[in-house]
Design a protein that fits this description.
Blueprint (H helix, E strand, L loop, with lengths): L7 H4 L63 H9 L2 H12 L15 H7 L2 E4 L13 H5 L2 H10 L3 E3 L4 E3 L1 E3 L2 E3 L8 E6 L6 H13 L3 E6 L8 H7 L11 E4 L16 E3 L2 H9 L22 E4 L2 E2 L5 E7 L17 H17 L3 E5 L21 H16 L3 E5 L4 H10 L3 E3 L4 H10 L3 H12 L7 E4 L6 E2 L3 H4 L6 E4 L2 E4 H17 L6 E3 L3 E3 L2 H8 L13 H16 L4 E5 H4 L11 H4 L38 H5 L5 H14 L6 E4 L8 E7 L11 E7 L5 E6 L8 E4 L4 E5 L5 E6 L4 E7 L5
Parallel strand pairs: 1-2, 1-22, 2-7, 7-13, 13-14, 14-15, 15-16, 16-22
Antiparallel strand pairs: 3-6, 4-5, 8-12, 9-10, 10-12, 11-12, 17-21, 18-19, 20-21, 23-24, 24-25, 25-30, 26-29, 27-28, 27-30
Helix pairs in contact: 3-10, 10-11, 11-12, 13-14, 13-16, 13-17, 17-18, 18-22
Amino acid sequence: MARDEYRPEELYTGPIDLPLQQIVDDEAGEADKPEISYDEQRYPARPRRLRPRDVVGGRVRRNTTDPRTANGSNPSYIEWLVRQSMLKDADVLARQLSGQPSMWRNPYARPDARRAIATSDVWFTAYPISLITRPGQSFLSALGAEELWAAFDRVGITAIHTGPVKRAGGIAGWLDTPSVDGHFDRISTAIDPAFGTEDEFRALCDVADSHGGSVIDDIVPGHTGKGADFRLAEMGFKDYPGIYHMVEIQPEDWMLLPDVPDGTDSVNLDAATEAELADRGYIIGALQRVIFYTPGVKETNWSATAPVLGPDGVTRRWVYLHYFKQGQPSINWLDPTFAGMRLVIGDALHSLGELGTSALRLDANGFLGVEVSAEGLPAWSEGHPLSHAANHIIAGMVRKVGGFTFQELNLTMEDIRDTAAVGADLSYDFVGRPGYHHALATGQTEFLRLALTSSLALGVAPVQLVHGLQNHDELTYELVHWATRHADELYRFRGDEISGRDLAEVVRAELTESLTGTADYNRVFTQNGIACTTTSLIAAARGVERLEDITEAEIPAIRDAHLLLCAYNAWQPGVFALSGWDLVGMLTVPATDVRDLIAAGDTRWIERGAHDLLDVAPEATRSAAGMPRGRSLYGSLPAQLSDPDSFASRLSSIIALRREHAIATATQIDIPEVAHAGMLVLVHRLDDGDADSDAATQVTVFNFSAEPTDGTVRSEHLTPGSAVVDVSTGAAIGRVDDLNSFTVSLPGYGAAFLLLEADEQG
């Protein structure tokens, strides 16, 4: 029975003797409490232990109540929440798998990017609510359609990342509340009926397998939504408070907390309240940054709940941590109950073992540890060792059952490197992604080259990364690497020295001006980035001011620039990922069409327009989930694949070259200086990771400017006398001279995939 169909009077059959949480007897008297201090050089003295709450008689008597009541006084309500909680499902699944021989058949200690890439190297990134399907057809059924996989075969796509399809959002009383973050606020292991059924998910996995492909699901180790688990935690029920970073505030201190308005269940703390609660020893206070900072909406990472009645008769108020939105309470990975860890591992094993997926994306996995820091400094919340340890546990468990993971970790390159050393097999490319956007927006590749060379120098190789075009998120330009850890470090940029902090400011300002300064169809998203599609980014970079100004005459240049970005991401080691918005060339939807969705400041909805990959519902103006249809510049996949000059057909040629020469598992050995500001050169050894092999050298040259260019390619890794062959045509375009260089000509937005062939006379 779906939750929205639930009638409490049908479920209730009388009082149920649930094993309610026991209350610990109060200690007799006030024991001596010596002050315990942390390291005096770094940490303030530990706050005095709060006095345990007095409990008369040792146990609180349960109240009887109306069966329709949705609070802790109703045993049926508690039972209803427990039955749908993720922690309950995790415990059941763990007992089924524990002690089975299947848990010991796979190595799991070390990440293996190349093994993961061998499973699938070109991914389609889906977004459930934006896919237009046949009338009455579910999202999961549409993804499992043979005709879609036939089209993917022709393009070269080998995996589908479904996006989050399990129930998300929250529970208020007996009713569901909607997702606040595109279903990344998960509240259940069950598939959301809006997207299909578990049987349809399993059928999708079977169809993918028959085409030599795989399916990738999501888990969210950083937070949940406000579902059954959070509601039980608010009530102080059993282990559930241990799932979250939440602290019970004593009634005598409730005056410190803001009032919660009617119709809401919590309110964000302002900075003064956050500091006061920290001073009193309740919370660790301000963190290193406030993600999604919005004045009057989210000024800190902490929120206070309304008073909540528990099954023990006690009314509580809590303050809980949420790195992201208020409806996404953060999971505590080091609570004595280990309830949060159990919940996340159970969710992962359900996707891999019950549904049949091959891999999992770890969302928000860089924020799994927080710790009090020195007096006056923000709490340690990024790059924390607990995050590394937790990621090791998650990724190890996934490898133990034969899968792999990739992480979306927008932190410094060192954090990506260190987390990947024992954690996820692959990491989303937050290194080059803002760099190539900046290169296209400005026609200059200097910042992109700086990012790529810094990445290599710091030990993050491109083979470890998922190089993506558009996904459901904004064009991220936080540039955390430069703006935080390396803020005071000096870099050579545009003929001068500049600090990392100032470099980040320059790049952000130039992206903002280029993509939103005159274009009325892209929007800034909080302090994180810019809401846009790949095609709307290109249009803005070309100076187009309005969506209606993108005429048929403008489309070929947009398509060429789009294919350049595809080649950049595909013609280097690692995974290449793209979305439905990319495949059909979607523009942003007018802001007026998603007015209600963006009213609270989440402008990303303009980039999530509904799209029809197979032209199955040409008359549809919205997806089944209600997303308005956007404008497609390229048309459906079947139409494109019948035209050799279309975006999809030319994309298939790019991917074919990638596969033929195994660039996905190659080794990047150089990003040399260039002769023209718009050029980028990548040098690879096609060695499948074996540095001792006698492997061929491959060179990719890109032109990020709209104008044709001639330039010299020079690298110490180029062998003099070698012939330079353009693989797409088979023609030799030159020979490496004694200065380890050769010349190349490229059209505007051009790219060349080159191989060096040894001089047979040498």
